[in-house]
């Protein structure tokens, strides 16, 4: 499931909003260093991560097996992707990561609504 030299990104493949974001990351330079796992299609996600948890919140596992979620997970991705490294540096400034985590937690309750809006076919 995970490649020893890559970050493993667990995402909800049934969420149109999440699928768009993951597709964006997959097109980036450096995406070859990321392994994308659709948690909605997997039963076994490895140690310390249930399918239910992976579908509720964004998770990333590093090559050492360390699991992070939420804003910390996005920061780990940004560190790997050259065009996003500026965001990782900004996020690492004192006090910024907790603010990003707070924003992420605020986003989670509205994610289903946004996913429905994104998933609607164009007219």
Tag the structure with descriptive keywords.
four-stranded mixed β-sheet; alpha+beta; 123 residues; 13% strand; 6 helices; 45% helix
N-to-C SSE string, H for helix and E for strand: EHEHEEHHHH
Sheet with the most strands: spatial strand order: 2-1-3-4
- Total separate domains: 1
Poorly predicted segments: none
Question: What's the count of strands?
Answer: 4
Counting H and I runs of at least 4 residues, what is the number of helices?
A: 6
The percent of residues in helical segments reads 40-55%
First-last Cα distance: 39 Å
Could you tell me the radius of gyration in angstroms? Answer: 14 Å
Strand content: 5-15%
Average pLDDT value? 90
The secondary-structure class comes to: alpha+beta
Quick recap of the structure?
The chain is of the alpha+beta class.
How would you describe this protein?
With 123 residues, the protein is of the alpha+beta class. It has one domain (7-114). 45% of the residues lie in helices and 13% in strands. The chain is built from 6 helices and 4 strands. It has helices at 16-26, 51-56, 71-80, 85-91, 96-107, 111-119, and strands at residues 7-11, 34-38, 59-61, 67-69. A 4-stranded mixed beta sheet has the order 2-1-3-4, covered by helices on one side. β3 and β4 form a beta hairpin. α3 (71-80) crosses α4 (85-91). It is globular and about 35 Å long.
